[in-house]
Structures
1.
Amino acid sequence: MLISPTNKPQIFITMGDPSGIGPEVIAKSMASPALKGLAVFIVFGDMDVMARAAETFGRGSFRLRKLENTESQADPDEEAVNIIDPGPPLANSRYGQPTRGGAEKTLSCLDAAVDIMRRSSAETPKALVTAPVNKEKIAEIHPGFVGHTEHLQKAYGSALVTMVLVGETLRVVPVTRHIPLREVASALSVDLIADTLEQVASNRRMITGGEDAKIAVAALNPHCGEGGKIGTEEIDVIAPAVERARKFYENIEGPVSADVVFYKALQKKVDIVVSMYHDQGLSPFKMVDFDNGVNMTLGLGHVRTSPDHGTAFDIAGKDQASSSSMEQAIRLAVRAISTA
Amino acid sequence: MLISPTNKPQIFITMGDPSGIGPEVIAKSMASPALKGLAVFIVFGDMDVMARAAETFGRGSFRLRKLENTESQADPDEEAVNIIDPGPPLANSRYGQPTRGGAEKTLSCLDAAVDIMRRSSAETPKALVTAPVNKEKIAEIHPGFVGHTEHLQKAYGSALVTMVLVGETLRVVPVTRHIPLREVASALSVDLIADTLEQVASNRRMITGGEDAKIAVAALNPHCGEGGKIGTEEIDVIAPAVERARKFYENIEGPVSADVVFYKALQKKVDIVVSMYHDQGLSPFKMVDFDNGVNMTLGLGHVRTSPDHGTAFDIAGKDQASSSSMEQAIRLAVRAISTA
């Protein structure tokens, strides 16, 4: 099912929260001449919401085609933007006013996309691009929801997923993600770090677009632990993990002091920085790539990207949202497919 | 004692490790036309080491004057660079080859400077500028030595000292410093953060050179703890500390997500960022101010600054070391005196 007439990659896009800027940035991206023809686009969203967004922000440059029966051999239309609406229709969705119903539709669109991607043929190259969701509202109906990455990990039954932030200037990979800082040191293990490094190394061409990549691993403690005087995780955990991963891929350096490794990355002496925790990677990243970051998830069997911004309810529907990050997420997904 | 004929500020400079680049960058700074006449300079160092550095790197632009008896009313010479050598002379000091004797002399120069500063009249404005030391070698003769900041805190009997990194682009203050990351969360308290904020606020003009300063406080956990879902320190510790400190100085904001606050600082929406731990502040700082950072210590009764580089034994004596950071440290010390 969902077999493209040609062998063009399929980009599955989820709408995200209908009251946020998701539908708007998707419509603007679909209207972007730079993306035309790059892939077959299939949006999982509410038909009415997407039709409104297409009308307001699509500038008449594309048509929507609803795929009525996703179980059939329905071929997506390469010339149109294909919509799959898992139903039921969302009533009275308003920009800037998130609702429980909107969160339910957000989640059902995401789950429909995952379901179809998991069951579809491996022959057609594909990737998932997700628009931003309202985590709090989704958590009300789906307790424990903390974000796309973790939700997809469960849905795909993946042993390890890795979050990669890809920007124009930096590329960073936090080994641990949305956990309290006081739990970080205990959450690190040789296996977790080494497995992450190997997943990053395996996907380095997706991440950098280049053939090779210098990967550097940040230390956990100040001054790289100063030989064990300020913490022992560099000696006990990080160095052994790097040693193990280097047998798989040699071009890995570390641990390197956190206050040196990002400077080296800025100087292009390092291509990908693997950080031990969320803010260690994200703070430097957002300094230089605040507006042009793309979030990439590895370990799902196909790549998933998303713009590195939130629902932005305050500006939704006002034609103030830039689709630049969404367009980059789509471009990166296409590139990832071609280098996979 | 050490009363300048005029009311010029006195800048006390410690030599640092004699085998490192300390003597070289001091001599180059003393030769800098930009610093001439800004202050009365008194260097605590080995006479032979400083004479050699002055000869090699001073370019004949200043003379050294040894103050023989620091207990007398010896007036420092405003036209010369004054040297106080606590003795005994250091034999056979070689660049690039740190020795135990060199470490002993480093420490005795530092302690002599502290001793004289603590006992000298409050009338003459003064500040301390320290050249880099070899922490490992000093720790061999003085167990527990982890760095200038902590050593000076003990020597001055200060209840709280605060380390400030002052760069051209950013100014950051880590609340905790050289401790393992796993101990950071437990080391934070409302009092420590609030006291640090008040010390920073009291010295904001020293730090920024301006009248007012917007101070922002970084969160500890990812996404600022997401309302307690990813850690509770924002709610239990940081927010109450900010609330307390705002009664002392209003222009304090926080906690702000770490991956947002440094971006805001880069955009000049924040003047000083107070971070919860070493790398949280130092990693962003070194990205943009790697080569021009100055370390400042508050809480000693007078300001202390130092260049933000190490002993650099590998290039010592080779005329490769830049005195730019040392010169900035001296300039910042002079500015701190004038705004104190």
2.
Amino acid sequence: MDRPWQRIDEWSQARKGKIMEHLPLIAAPLLRRQIVAVFTQWGMPQAAAEEAAEVMVDTDLRGVDSHGIGMLPHYQRFFASGELDPKAQPSVRQERPSTALVDAHHSIGHTAALLAMRLAIGKAQATGVGVVGVCGSNHYGAAGYYAQMAANEGLIGLSLTNAFTPFLVPVFGRQPQLGTNPIAFSAPGRRHPPVSLDMATTTVAYGKVSIARRAGKALPEGWALNAEGRPEHDSAVAAETKLLAPLGGTRVLGGHKGYGLALMVEILCATLTGASAADRITGHFFLVIDPGAFRDPGEFRAELDALTDRMRATEPAEPGQRVLVPGDPEYAAFAERSLRGIPMTPTLLEEVREVCRESGAPFLLLP
Amino acid sequence: MDRPWQRIDEWSQARKGKIMEHLPLIAAPLLRRQIVAVFTQWGMPQAAAEEAAEVMVDTDLRGVDSHGIGMLPHYQRFFASGELDPKAQPSVRQERPSTALVDAHHSIGHTAALLAMRLAIGKAQATGVGVVGVCGSNHYGAAGYYAQMAANEGLIGLSLTNAFTPFLVPVFGRQPQLGTNPIAFSAPGRRHPPVSLDMATTTVAYGKVSIARRAGKALPEGWALNAEGRPEHDSAVAAETKLLAPLGGTRVLGGHKGYGLALMVEILCATLTGASAADRITGHFFLVIDPGAFRDPGEFRAELDALTDRMRATEPAEPGQRVLVPGDPEYAAFAERSLRGIPMTPTLLEEVREVCRESGAPFLLLP
């Protein structure tokens, strides 16, 4: 049996340079208590705070450092500006057996997304498919968390969100017009963990540009653009201008496809739900499908395992790096970090301490 | 009002080098009669032949030369080998109010896809969403045709297909494992024609490598790979080895995302429906959503127009090339080719003549 923790070495190799050996390692339960302490201090009900913290810590455990505790300082700003209402109770605005629209009423995105995904899962279990949109929301963390909720129930999940910070420059343009609008997809195997894709529709997320800047490294063509819409190689400049190329990078390498995918995400998350990104409102879109509505669900899962095996058996270009399946690096990170803890940079620890100071919550992470 | 035919010049510019001025131009009705003549000669019922020909000619009118009449010689081969049964009547194998599985019984893909998409549209109109899978099918032409059928009814459409010819090499690998597995999405505006994305999940379709080979041009890094899994710049070699990079091209430019999207398409089209690509069986996946299940449909369409306007108003990098919305080049091609006819190369005309000879159908395209 191929267990995630057997892939730690592979993962370490794939993420070489991202692992910072000498950082403090924070245990997941402590991190969860810290986040709950901040959220409840804002006035968020205990249950909602625990749920949202659970999503964030899971994200850190999976190695997606950009979307877990790392977002807390941003959430603090959204709370301070009034864009995020910690007391808001998302509600179902419109509902049919296979569809629903949830109004988040400006809650933290996680609360609304959890409600919406649970609703979509129930609809898929009852009718074969569930489509739930969310309007009036905020940042919901990692898109992949919600897609995988469906896979954990033996269902296929799709999770999309728009993002109101414009980063993505459409092909032929020189202004950012869309967020990094991610696509997450998850499908359940039997022997193997779910195949779980979670990708921004830009070539890279902004975080990668920041990392290159701190390391003083040049950017490859296809990551970022300058104010004239041409490739920007200077990571210090790119970190300032924040103009990202859509997946594909340039027109000749298919940048119009990444732009098209980002626009699809925008339409499903914002135009369909009425969450206008132009007004700094975030929307989400969830689709859940029950394989049992199409074929024997056991056969589906067995065949997905066979597909995973077929991909992993691809002859590798380099002997030391075998072909992965989406989700592999995250499962390996999860196994490692569950044992060792979650590495946090001094900067991030300081930012969390500052959040605690501002909100009046106790700082719990370091003695 | 922004009409498609006002964008002919823009399109001509965008497709510069693809328009071959001195080719014979075949009128759409004649091309349709030619295709129908071949299909009925194979034994396909008249109505099915006319429907499939309609899809193919529409595709040629939209400038997608690789997926219209250009596929006829391939279909002739599938017919000759018995993989395509012209007399097959696709049937619904499993059905619930919002889902269905269609068995194509090895019909031409178009026939099964039209049935499935109509079913999905009806389900979306009745319940807000329709998901229909197809197994046991063949090549269905351009994915975008079916997505746009939904948009023409005021609905949002998604159309995916797997393809059993392996072209796509997973990141870190050096063997082709997946087809060019396209994603097509279409959503209806009010003033503007639908936003219509239709993209392979490889950086380029194989046709672009062929074109570069004929022109004796080198390939940019990110299009094709050599047998060692490294970038192949020689178009003559790449046309032989047929190893395409996933969208993104290289790992550093997000090739794992294109690979992940291709795998998602494979799971939804093959694993979900039971159409195993390993057995040279094609499957499709259609999703239709009624915006009216989420908000006022008129408001949805008006807001989509506003989004289109916002994208088109992006400050351009070059003054002569404004930012487009997915579908723009195809609408312009449609307007031009509806008036002028469909250009066909001497090679393609000769191939169609050969198909007619083999099948015993009359050759109608040239006097």
